[in-house]
Amino acid sequence: MGKQVWKPGNMLYPLPAVMVSTADKKGNDNIITVAWTGTVCTNPAMLYISVRPERYSYHMLRESGEFAVNLTTEKLARAADWCGVRSGKDVDKWKETGLTRGKAEKLSFAPVIQESPVNIECKVCEVKELGSHHMFLAEVLAVQAEESYMKQNGKFELNASGLLAYSHGEYFSLGKDLGRFGWSVKK
What are phi and psi of 116, to 5 degrees? Predict the structure, then answer.
């Protein structure tokens, strides 16, 4: 079985689908669906999102330097897709999706999405202008997590929530357990 070589810019890689909430310093806020995101560092806790400069939320991210990554689940799939194909300059995404603004614990401007099981509050440390997207490297200031996903032993178990992944223009629910970290070398 051979492999086809694609131009890197044409490739859509499997990624998480998250809704990012942000705001400017005047109180205007928005939700943007982002697939280019991930963990960068454990200590200090850091992550990144990549956003095109022409997106409506871009100026808010630059101005306030704040955002919340709101994890998406099967229940939020329609809202995540809708927020990814509509512009906040034309519609109020909060109103149209029925999502609720929540108070961030550590951020001054950006709200969180209350319906999301996990809200990761971030402060931008650096913006790298990489080409089609600019990468917002951010420190995680706080994490709000739905209590129903906390086990009695203190372990966080989000696996049952139906987290979304985005691959080649399609959304998938994560679910089937294939193993635990280190299972390939356990005896």
Answer: -75, 135
